[in-house]
Design a protein that fits this description.
Layout: H1 2-8, H2 11-31, H3 36-42, H4 46-64, H5 79-86, H6 89-116, H7 125-133, H8 135-150
Helix pairs in contact: 2-3, 2-4, 2-6, 2-7, 4-6, 6-7, 6-8, 7-8
Length: 157
């Protein structure tokens, strides 16, 4: 049974499952940010545990395929080195899971922070969608909304 699961989850299949798997979390964040489901399942550590499982599975598959983990540190030596690393599908998939996890965590933070500041949930729809697609730009747009709503600039909050 475990071997069947292992053979089913190829890198391509895991890519589809990770991408489809985060969509329900994002839909709840966008359309039902104040619901109990959002508090329990989305803005908690629950989705991160699921993505960590996918990350460890990729890590395990990489280990079995004798992936050169020490070579990953070459990404700091130059842009060509990171391009070489991204040509390796296992590293690319691990990076993609990392990217999706950070964006989902950021989306959860935006929802919790907007609720703390009593920002209307309609105002955070656009920043959440942009955070899902382009993480840093979405959080910047939310930060601008936050400044105008709170009428103060706070760089360390």
């Amino acid at each position: 049974m475990i071997e069947q699961i292992y053979n089913y989850f190829t890198i391509e299949m895991l890519y589809y499952w990770v991408n489809l798997g985060v969509l329900p979390f994002w839909l709840v964040l966008i359309f039902f940010p104040q619901s109990q489901i959002c508090r329990i399942f989305v803005t908690s550590i629950f989705p991160i545990f699921i993505l960590v499982g996918a990350y460890f599975f990729m890590f395990y598959k990489s280990y079995l395929n004798s992936y050169d983990f020490v070579g990953n540190f070459e990404l700091y030596l130059g842009i060509n080195n990171i391009a070489d690393l991204f040509s390796e599908k296992t590293f690319l998939m691990m990076f993609w899971i990392h990217f999706i996890s950070i964006n989902l965590f950021t989306g959860g933070w935006i929802v919790r922070d907007s609720q703390k500041l009593l920002i209307n949930k309609i105002l955070i729809i656009i920043p959440l969608i942009i955070t899902y697609l382009i993480g840093p730009l979405g959080i910047f747009i939310y930060w601008l909304i936050r400044i105008f709503h709170a009428k103060s600039v706070n760089l360390y909050d």
